Amino acid sequence: MLPRVRAAVAQLVAGLGAGGQPPAEPRGGERGSPAGPPFCRPAFLQLTPEELRRADDRAGRAVQSPRDGRRRLPWCTGYAEVINAGKSQHNEDQACCEVVFVERRPSPRGRLPSREGGGELDGGRQGFYFHYWALFDGHAGSGAAVMASKRLHLHICEQLRDLVDILQDPSQPPICLPQDARASPGDPSRVPLAEGDGEVPNDAVPRFHLEKAVSHESLVIGAIENAFKHMDDQIERERVSQRLSGGCCALAAVYLMGKFYVANAGDSRAIIIRNGEIIPMSREFTPETERQRLQFLAFLRPELLGKEFTHLEFPRRIQPKELGKKMLYRDQNMNGWAYKKIEEDDLKFPLIYGEGKKARVMATIGVTRGLGDHDLRVFSSNIHIKPFLSCFPEVRVYDLTQYEHCPDDVLVLGTDGLWDVTNDKEVASVVMEVLTSYEPNDPCRYTMVAQELVVRSRGVLKERGWRLANDKLGSGDDISVFVIPLGGPGNYT
Known about the structure:
By secondary structure, the chain is of the alpha+beta class. It contains 9 helices and 19 strands. The strands form 6 sheets. Strands 2, 3, 4, 5, 14 and 15 form a 6-stranded antiparallel beta sheet that branches. Strands 1-19-16-6-7 form a 5-stranded antiparallel beta sheet. A hairpin with an 8-residue loop joins strand 9 (326-329) and strand 10 (338-341). The chain is globular.
């Protein structure tokens, strides 16, 4: 029974047993597909061909960082990365760091005027800048991660263009925008407005007096969320022509008008270390953390399970001889456990298989949010997994203006290669240890922190593989880390 699912499970277990690392997720029937984009590293590293070859050496696993004398990253940001120990052919992580100008759209009649003098630059352009850092942890190929690293910030910029005037105006955001001159008469997304300047007629106000208050902050969050969706749509449209394989987790930080917006879709994570205090800025999205969402979708649309999986969770696999007995279970509505009588349908493989870092959706993929994976299927089947994967991030906000930060306060972004072997307290300890050994105005101090975090998580190569200082197994995954200072002279210029 269920030979294809059993084959997928056998492949998963064999990969975990061999080297302690999950195997690369299958590409869902892409046999014979052409090779993806050429191997590359983040452009801001400015690697020479020889340095690029060294960065791709899985035996030596040399740590890569921006070199002294080359263009510094904004805010003196620190960055470091290292390739995996053999999990994949190349480093499938990607990174991006940009300063992006958001230019307001040409104003149709009735558009809100911008605040006097606010946002106007030399040459008459009106808008604002945002700072952007992002990490993309690819799987089953680097194609999706490469494209997202080059395009996600542009999608965020595009989504913010409608907000240039609104975000610079302290008054309440309008419920409806004025008519957009670019929209065609038949455009279903176009909101019908009254003639004139696009304001709601006075006689309509009493009928709609109960209006939700929408903050400027929530508009930025919505813009980032929509940008992730547009990025995922672009990967789907261009995956064949651009030969985009696999998918990627995405972790992005946007600094705009005094606030950090940290958006996470996947199992990368971010924390703020402020005066020794640890402030989580994201959480992991895995089959276990999103169990109820996945189960609820499978309950509503059982056809997605292909008649081979059950949405129910049991403490272990059920044996045929246990039919009719009562066993512990839980469904999409339950946090606790209860007993139910085992039926024939309960013998199917569970939607979520395994636990901890070994948990998989349909015995295939270990993350539940991210970009790409449009062709991902259960091994040797036509059961698509993409419907269970969300491209929408969770966005958390940190207001820098509410605190007085010192040069040792930082935001750390890291892919799961860091967090798999290093917890929050250990990261904070490394940050404080390294920063205290450098002068507060030394622009290299944050790069040194990023390098030390990567080195300690990778470990040292010994006879029994890469080992940490405590002799436990080091991270064999790709590791990428940003260390972003929150305070200190010159960081906000």
